[in-house]
């Protein structure tokens, strides 16, 4: 995980500890709020390369979900759900007094972002973005676009059981799925990612995996009143290119960008290229076309 865009210094993330039921978070910069929601089994550290966006007028905020990282011991972590993570994020938005928030969720974090949009209409969101994620993890006759194409509820239950039984043993295989096919993080990156994963609470991870398998955000995307955008890895090992196109058809007014030479975690694999693509999306949000798509 590169600290910043090449050749560009970036402010340090300031970490804020979890308190009560409020999750921990990291932030850098000032300006329009950019809320970055990490994926399953990682933490807000996954967005270390996005600190550079603070140099462009953004307040970059990256919380740790319950059961993850600095929020591993939150009281409700053991029975965490996507809805609970969304409630935690909404509480943080209100605690910080944020307005016109652009939420960008990666993987599981995308489901949390879509849940925020679906369940809390009063939250002051400006747009919702997703990084390499399907709105339905489990495949169906009318949705052959789940995890690895044909993932089913039985496989999800088996995965959750394995996580509860021996999460450390799964870390290497989960980590391997982040980078693009044929690539892998360097030794320092790989060690850091594994360290983050080891901080996670297995019971929380298992509960969240089971809950993700129950979710279906297709209707929420069809009915979205906010501008939507999708950032995908060109060579994701988890989701084929057809997933992004099928997701886009749910809400044709949305925008999509593909990050060349990246997999499931484009913001970690090529942070400079990802940041450039995200900034283009953020610029689009100020355009008349984006405003029209939210009506």
Automatic annotation (TrEMBL):
InterPro entries: AB_hydrolase_1, AB_hydrolase_fold, AB_hydrolase_sf, Epox_hydrolase-like. Keywords: Acyltransferase, Hydrolase, Transferase. One of its GO terms (cellular component) is membrane. Residues 34-277 form the AB hydrolase-1 domain. It comes from the Bacteria. GO terms for molecular function: acyltransferase activity; hydrolase activity. The keyword Hydrolase applies. PANTHER family: AB HYDROLASE SUPERFAMILY PROTEIN YCLE, MONOACYLGLYCEROL LIPASE. This is Hydrolase or acyltransferase. It comes from Cupriavidus basilensis OR16.
């Amino acid at each position: 995980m590169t600290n910043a865009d090449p050749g560009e210094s970036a402010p340090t993330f300031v970490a804020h500890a979890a308190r009560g039921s409020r999750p921990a978070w990291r932030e850098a910069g000032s300006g329009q709020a950019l809320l970055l929601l990490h994926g399953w089994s990682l933490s807000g550290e996954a967005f270390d390369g996005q600190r550079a966006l603070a140099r462009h007028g953004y307040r970059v905020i990256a919380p740790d979900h319950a059961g993850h990282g600095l929020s591993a011991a939150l009281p409700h972590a053991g029975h965490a759900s996507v809805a609970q993570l969304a409630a935690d994020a909404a509480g943080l938005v209100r605690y910080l007094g944020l307005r016109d928030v652009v939420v960008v969720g990666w993987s599981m974090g995308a489901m949390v972002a879509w849940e925020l949009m679906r369940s809390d209409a009063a939250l002051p969101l400006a747009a919702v973005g997703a990084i390499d994620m399907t709105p339905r993890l489990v495949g169906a006759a009318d949705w052959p676009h789940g995890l690895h194409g044909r993932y089913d509820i039985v496989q999800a239950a088996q995965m959750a059981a394995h996580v509860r039984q021996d999460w450390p043993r799964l870390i290497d295989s989960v980590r391997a799925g982040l980078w693009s096919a044929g690539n892998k993080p360097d030794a320092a990156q790989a060690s850091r990612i594994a360290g983050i994963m080891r901080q996670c609470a297995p019971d929380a991870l298992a509960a969240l995996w089971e809950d993700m398998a129950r979710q279906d955000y297709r209707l929420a995307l069809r009915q979205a009143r906010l501008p939507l955008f999708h950032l995908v890895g060109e060579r994701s090992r988890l989701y084929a290119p057809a997933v992004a196109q099928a997701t886009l058809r749910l809400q044709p007014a949305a925008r999509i960008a593909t990050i060349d030479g990246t997999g499931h975690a484009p913001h970690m694999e090529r942070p400079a290229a990802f940041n450039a693509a995200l900034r283009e999306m953020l610029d689009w949000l100020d355009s008349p076309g984006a405003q029209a798509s939210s009506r």
